[in-house]
Structure formats: structure tokens, C-alpha cells
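Technical note accompanying the year-one report. For the benefit of new consortium partners, we illustrate the data format agreed upon in the data management plan: each record pairs a sequence with a C-alpha cell string. No post-processing was applied to the example shown here.
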Amino acid sequence: MTAHTLHGDLESTALYDIPGPRAQRRHFLYGVLSTAVILALAGWILYLLFDTNQFTAAKWSPFQYTGIQELLLRGLGNTLKAFAYASVLSLVLGAVLATGRLSWHRPVRWLATLCVEFFRAMPVLVMIFFIFVALKVQPLPALVAGLTLYNGSVLAEVFRTGINAVERGQREAAYALGMRKTQVMTYVLAPQAGRAMLPAIISQLVVALKDTSLGFLITYEEFLHAGKLIASNLDYDLPFIPVVMVISPIYIGMCMLLSWFATWVARRQRRSPKTEAVDVAAAEPGPVLPGQP
């Protein structure tokens, strides 16, 4: 066994002990039992759906109508529009609040901290209702404003934590080179923290995407609101179940697509020439100094 192989084995077992034969059998048993429970739960749900006749043609034929399809597509477009506005504004607000929290000026830091803690603690639904009812704002701006205030305050903490997680020596070295604070933040800290912050940023954007469904409570015609309109006009029992079975996979697919995009961006960053390691030539002897043998 070579030293490199031994070093790799030590690294792979540094955090936990390799399970022995009994532990492997126990883990296999746990996996089999968990799979059986999941399959039993899925079978029970399918049994209930078939027992209540949720897969009959009469309950699914309305989705073939052009009017219902257009209503769903219009609601999906409104959902994506609200998410696009809220995600961009949340990122901007989060960056501004994080910059304020990292400021050297105490009043600015206190004001940014107060905004972050207040909007992060306030329920997003309460903010949306307050903006819509008390301020008499239209449904789309009210929904976007509520989502922006909440998710922006959460992203501010993500940005601040990511910046502070960068090794302190990086900041000190940049200041030693004569760089200003804005240059240090822009060219040194933010690029290094970006990769570490990306999973948390995407997770919060997924939350924003799902929270767009709160728009139906203020009559914003988003995807869930369209499904509610469809279900309320169907004349058979339990009309909401087929509608949910149509809407839910689309919501899940959009969230999975957003997560896949984050993975693709992270993989692309690892392959970027600016972040790849550069081969350094081996050191060679320099010219002989005068007077040296």
C-alpha cells in the first residue's frame, strides 16, 4: 500500500468509523424497512384515490378544455412573474441590508440590524395583508413587496454570514495592499463567499417561489388561485383533489428546476478558468551571482 493510498484511507475514515459486518446488516435492514414503509404509505394513498374514484374520466375530462388550460397557463405565468420580481428585489435588498450590517458606522449598522430582525420575525402573510389592505396597494405589488421584505431580510443574514466566513487573513492581506473597503468586498470577499452562499440562496428562492401561492388570499390571479377557480366550478365530489394532482407536480418541478440550476452554476464555477488550479513550473537554479563559485 502506497503512502498516497494510506493517506486517502485515513481521510475517508477521519469523521466516522467504517461500519462492520453487523452494522452493515443493521443498516441494510433499516433501509429495507424504510422502503417498505414508504411503499405501504404510497399504496395506501393510491387505494384511497381509487376508492373515491379520483381517476375516472369524468373528473379529468375538464382539463381538456381550452378555457381551463388557458386559465392554468395564465396563473402559472402570473406566478412566475411575481417570483421573478420578488427574487431580484430580494437579492438587491439582501445585499443592501447585509452591507449595512457590515458597515463600520454604528448608526447604519443598528438601523440595518433593526430592519433585518423586524422583517425576518414578521410573518410574511401579515406583511402582505397589511400592504394590500392598509396601504391599498394592488395585489401584485403587495405580494411582491411582502415577499421581498421577508426574503430580503433572510438573505441579508445569508450574505453577512458568508462574508464573515471568509478567512480573516484574506481581508487583512487586501487591506495591506492598499485596497479600500469597497474593493475588498467586491474583489476579495464576495467572490470567495459566493460559492459557499449559493445553496442557501437557492433554498431561500425556493421558499419565495412557494410563497407566491399566498397571492390567492389577496385575489392575485396566480397558479393556486386559478386552481381554486377551476375546482369551485366543477360539479362532482372532491373537485380539489384532481386540481391539486395537476398543480402540485408543476410546483415541485419548478423547485427542482431551480435546484438543478444552482447545481449547474456551481459546477460551472468549478470548471471556470478563473477558479481552476494553475500548474506551476518546477523551480530551477538561477544564474550564478558574481563572486560565487
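Partners are asked to follow this layout when depositing records. Residues 1-15 have pLDDT under 50 and may be disordered.
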